[in-house]
Design goal:
about 70 residues
């Protein structure tokens, strides 16, 4: 359950996550509107891609400014 919360937070707050979230919603709407199996199969695929992107962005190391500790 925690992973779903982290994924939803990524989809809401991160710019890349927002774009992937919109893509998932569009594909899901097309799957429902056209009752297409290929679109329905694309939804979990896009969610898996967004999870991979989220994990890679989490692993990025950002430089920390040590000068702030001096004040």
């Amino acid at each position: 359950m925690k992973e779903a919360v982290v994924l939803m937070r990524f989809l809401r707050q991160d710019r890349v996550g927002q774009r992937l979230g919109v893509a998932v919603l569009v594909i899901a709407w097309l799957a429902v509107a056209w009752t297409s199996l290929s679109f329905a199969a694309a939804v979990p695929l896009l969610l898996a891609v967004s999870e991979v992107v989220r994990r890679r962005r989490e692993e990025e190391v950002y430089p920390v400014d040590d000068l702030e500790d001096l004040y």
